[in-house]
Amino acid sequence: MMDHKEIKQLVARSAVDALVRSGMKLGLGTGSTAIPAVHYIGELLQQGKLHNILAVPTSFQTVIACEQWGIPLYTLNSREIGGELDLTIDGADEVDPRNYCTKGGGGALLVEKIVAYASKSYAIVVDESKVVQNLGLKFPVPVEVIPEARLPVQRALEALGAEVQLREAVRKAGPVITEHANLILDIRFPAPIDPAELEGRINEIPGVVENGLFTRKHPVVFIGHADGSVETRP
Ligand code: 5RP
Fold it and tell me: Whole-model pTM?
């Protein structure tokens, strides 16, 4: 049986082999499952098996991984990218039976969503522990908030039935500050939610920048299993 790290590598490589082709404009995700995909793309570039890849990263973590592997970096606004990507590969914290996802465990939900929604194709790579029946019950849904709006947004989320927790930093006193200088409120629901409806409703609250429900860009989901198999869910 494979351990968690091995499953993540397996599923990341499997998605890259299935979907990444030379000449593509790629969105590259964040987290311990997406980064092995970045490393593998770097390896294939160095071996000459892939060429002419243009990458748009979703976080500082991804920028650094691309720099390590010499993967050419652009932004969505670069002339070469023109605001649209061929494919984005990213991880997720939870995936439900409709392939709706919760993302943002690594705090990169804002750019992850911008990049995903600007891609023609979208692939999610997860190990089997991420597959759930209902989003938001086990793993919290992150909400990125302008610091000045922390308390009013908390009240509005509580009015939607959520339990709200300000995300605390590790090895820094106080809250997590995102890459765009905002705070994250992690919210949980005591009963199943309607992710598609909630994705829009949360973003209507003044002061919310983005939330970690991803329901408006249908991904193909690659699920890695401990027995070494990879399931593809279209
Ligand atoms: C970061 C993310 C990640 O994709 C998500 O948290 C999954 O991470 P991992 O593969 O490390 O479990 O959304 O903001």
Answer: 0.96
CA-wise closest residue to 102 among 189, 171, 176: 189
Residue 30 Cβ inside 6 Å of ligand 1? The answer reads yes
162 and 220 both lie in a single domain: no
Predicted confidence at residue 207, as pLDDT, reads 98
Pairing between β-strand 208-211 and β-strand 101-102 as defined by DSSP bridges? unpaired
Domain co-membership, 115 together with 221: yes
pLDDT, one tens digit per residue, over 2-58 is 999 999 999 999 999 999 999 999 999 999 999 999 999 999 999 999 999 999 999
Q: How far is the CA of 139 from the centre of ligand 1 (A)?
A: 11
Query: What residue type is 6 in one-letter code?
Result: E
Q: Percent of the chain having pLDDT more than 70?
A: 100
Q: What's the structural domain count of the chain? A: 2
CATH number, domain of 226, equals: 3.40.50.1360
Cα–Cα distance between 36 and 2 in angstroms, integer?
16
Q: Supply the residues annotated as catalytic.
A: 112
In angstroms, rounded to a whole number, what is the distance separating the alpha carbons of residues 114 and 96? 21
Name residues whose C-beta falls within 8 Å of residue 216's C-beta, 6 or more positions apart in sequence.
117, 196, 199
Q: What is the pLDDT of residues 162-221, one digit of tens each?
A: 999 999 999 999 999 999 999 999 999 999 999 999 999 999 999 999 999 999 999 999
- Using DSSP's 3-state secondary structure scheme, residue 79 falls into coil
CB 93 less than 6 A from any atom of ligand 1? yes
| Separation CA 152–CA 202 (nearest Å) | 12
CA–CA gap between residue 140 and residue 57 (Å, rounded): 24
The rounded distance, in Å, linking the Cα atoms of 106 and 30 is: 7
